[in-house]
Design goal:
Signal peptide: 1-24
Mean pLDDT: 90
CATH class of the largest domain: Alpha Beta
Radius of gyration: 47 Å
Catalytic activity: [protein]-peptidylproline (omega=180) = [protein]-peptidylproline (omega=0)
Largest sheet: 6 strands, antiparallel
Domain PPIase FKBP-type: 54-142, 166-254, 278-365, 389-477
Oligomer: single chain
Number of domains: 5
Shape: rod-shaped
CATH topology of the largest domain: Chitinase A, domain 3
EC number: 5.2.1.8
Number of strands: 28
InterPro entries: EF-hand-dom_pair, EF_Hand_1_Ca_BS, EF_hand_dom, FKBP-like_isomerase, PPIase_dom_sf, PPIase_FKBP_dom
Low-confidence stretches: 1-34, 563-568
């Protein structure tokens, strides 16, 4: 009950009836009179706190007479009875009976008239000299001196940062009353609660209870009602004067003033070049949230992430975090949401999420790069240098910048043979083989725009890959002057057509032409361009002379190329 027995005598009958039927309630005491009977029907296993005089309690009750007739019940009103204990707001028996109770404890209390409504009773409700029986269930207890209670039950081994005032946090929680009744859960909504801390966006108790938490920490925060929703509750799920218990798991933490953070995991000893704005990078990464949840991985796609940096092709935090890396470097880049995907998030990335990228840089280049040549060995006699048109035989190992081997002629046991400047290799390789002497060893680094470009070679060379060739030149056959596929090594016979036309019929067929040219090459009088199919060269020469295309060359059609005598070509 809310008033002592004497208080009833001073109030009108109507007020008495309303109060009794609307608020009657039971209590339990440590030092009870011999006439007050208390039976502890249920006591919870855990009882961290008991009712003391001066505490505020919320409890349910059913009030009956000894014959079992009910005269009042809080359950009928679907509302607990809320009152201070030991301050004369209850009948004396209940003031005593509530003392020492635990939340969720149930007591049967029998109160004699002298500790209830005495010889006067309550007109029309409680007869004079009535013994009252109360079935009491304690739901909540707090004191005006209470503060927020914090119980941490898990803390990660590493806690580099804790929540401070003005930080923005993402956390999951279960919200219950002291009796364990769930009133709300972010888990049920499958969405974190996202908010600033310490600036009034939360109830005062949560503003205080979250301070000092680490990402990954789990704690129970108990908030008294005057630091929560007070006397009125929230108007929906939380009644007035309710203590609240939040079981919180912190997933994410940042401050709007944060910049990215970089932790270098592995930095190669030899770092000749670091990435700059405008470079094109190929790198692998694992992307996680601060709690370790994986949201993306280039490894799972078995393909690097390829992008320009410093030009807005990636989120601002990564644009900044990828600057200054070495090839082969591994680093961790932590990106706050305002430099990531912001309040909206993206795909599997929640809004306002801090992102953690563990990256491994495979290679990078700049579109302005040319090839790089490093000569490791030159023989003492290195006077004959390769040039366009020369026929080269060489060995090579081809790899990526991270050392991944792509191909090797040594492993195949045969040389690679090309005519320099004929388009038989990528442009960067053609450039890298120039001015090289037999026996020389060099390393040629080729950017992708001089290699296999953005497409790469399916299954062999990744797109946009920088290539490294370790080369040894084994043989060089000098080519012919540019524009020639055959030259004479001496003076050209003035009767050349007659010499070719062996049968003297005034017509030269392909067979006669081919036999004559090969004979000149065999005797050293002529030379075919090295590295090409000799029959194809001869056939093309014949076709050039067969001007009317009838399959034979006449004296009128037959002409020499107008150039130096020793380089005349048919």
């Amino acid at each position: 009950m809310a008033l002592g027995a004497r208080g009833w005598r001073r109030r009108s009958l109507l007020l008495l009836l309303l109060w009794v039927t609307g608020q009657a309630a039971p209590v339990l005491g440590l030092a009870v009179s011999s006439e007050l009977q208390i039976q502890r029907s249920f006591v919870p296993d855990e009882c961290p706190r008991t009712v003391h005089s001066g505490d505020f309690v919320r409890y349910h009750y059913v009030g009956t007479f000894l014959d079992g007739q009910k005269f009042d019940s809080s359950y009928d009103r679907d509302s607990t009875f809320n009152v201070f204990v030991g301050k004369g707001q209850l009948i004396a028996g209940m003031d005593q009976a509530l003392v020492g109770m635990c939340v969720n404890e149930r007591r049967f209390v029998t109160i004699p008239p002298n500790l209830a409504y005495g010889s006067e009773g309550v007109s029309g409700v409680i007869p004079p000299n009535s013994v009252l029986h109360f079935d009491v269930l304690l739901v909540d207890i707090w004191n005006s001196e209470d503060q927020v209670q914090i119980q941490t039950y898990f803390k990660p081994p590493s806690c580099p940062r804790t929540i401070q005032v003005s930080d923005f946090v993402r956390y999951h929680y279960n919200g219950t009353f002291l009796d364990g009744t769930l009133f709300d859960s972010s888990h049920n909504r499958m969405k974190t609660y996202d908010t600033y801390v310490g600036i009034g966006w939360l109830i005062p108790g949560m503003d205080k209870g979250l301070l000092g938490m680490c990402v990954g920490e789990k704690r129970i925060i108990t908030v008294p009602p005057f630091l929560a929703y007070g006397e009125e509750g929230d108007g929906k799920d939380i009644p007035g004067q309710a203590s609240l218990v939040f079981d919180v798991a912190l997933l994410d933490l940042h401050n709007p003033k944060d910049t990215i953070s970089i932790e270098n995991k592995v930095v190669p000893e030899n770092c000749e070049r670091r990435s700059q704005s405008g470079d094109f990078l190929r790198y692998h990464y694992n992307g996680t949230l601060l709690d370790g949840t994986l949201f993306d991985s280039s490894y799972s796609r078995n393909h690097t992430f390829d992008t320009y940096i410093g030009q807005g092709y990636v989120i601002p935090g990564m644009d900044e975090g990828l600057l200054g890396v070495c090839i082969g470097e591994r680093r961790r880049i932590v990106v706050p949401p305002h430099l990531g995907y912001g309040e909206e998030g993206r795909g599997s990335i929640p809004g306002s999420a801090v992102l953690v990228f563990d990256i491994h840089v495979i290679d990078f280049h700049n579109p302005s790069d040319s090839i790089s040549i490093t000569s490791h060995y030159k023989p003492p006699d290195c006077s004959v240098l390769s040039k366009k048109g020369d026929y080269l035989k060489y060995h090579y190992n081809a790899s990526l910048l991270d050392g991944t081997l792509l191909d090797s002629t040594w492993n195949l046991g045969k040389t690679y043979n090309i005519v320099l400047g004929s388009g038989q290799v990528v442009l960067g390789m053609d450039m890298g083989l120039r001015e090289m002497c037999v026996g020389e060893k060099r390393t040629v680094i080729i950017p992708p725009h001089l290699g296999y470009g953005e497409a790469g070679v399916d299954g062999e060379v990744p797109g946009s890959a920088v290539l490294v060739f370790d080369i040894e030149l084994l043989e060089l056959v000098s080519g012919l002057p540019e524009g020639y596929m055959f030259i004479w090594n001496g003076e050209v016979s003035p009767n050349l057509f007659e010499e070719i036309d062996r049968d003297g019929n005034g017509e030269v067929l392909l067979e006669e032409f081919s036999e004559y040219i090969h004979a000149q090459v065999a005797t050293g009088k002529g030379k075919l361009a090295p590295g090409f199919n000799a029959e194809m060269i001869v056939k093309n020469m014949f076709t050039n002379q067969d001007r009317n295309g009838d399959g034979k060359v006449t004296a009128e059609e037959f002409k020499l190329k107008d150039q130096e005598a020793k380089h005349d070509e048919l």
